Amino acid sequence: MQSQIVCHGCRNVLLYPRGAPSVCCVVCHAVTSTAPPPGDDTSVPTAQSQNVTVVVENPMTVDAKGKLVSNVVVGVTTGGKK
């Protein structure tokens, strides 16, 4: 099961495995605690009202000319119930 939270650094929506104490943003590298603040659950967006940006950063590779190549994939989904 996955949960989501808004990064406190860049405000992107982050997906993380449920039960993780914190999550590191691959965009800005900020570490966001997953524990909700007491009495405030506004930091967890609902899927039906938010777009979700997912960034996957794989290890860099070396091309045929010996240059480092980034392997980053970005996906955006629109919220909504199915």
UniProtKB/TrEMBL annotation:
Residues 7-31 form the Zinc finger LSD1-type domain. InterPro entries: LSD1-like, Znf_LSD1. The keyword Ligase does not apply. GO terms for cellular component: nucleus. It is found in: Nucleus. Keywords: Nucleus. The keyword Cytoplasm does not apply. NCBIfam families: LSD1. PANTHER family: PROTEIN LSD1. This is Zinc finger LSD1-type domain-containing protein. The lineage of its organism: Eukaryota, Viridiplantae, Streptophyta, Embryophyta, Tracheophyta.
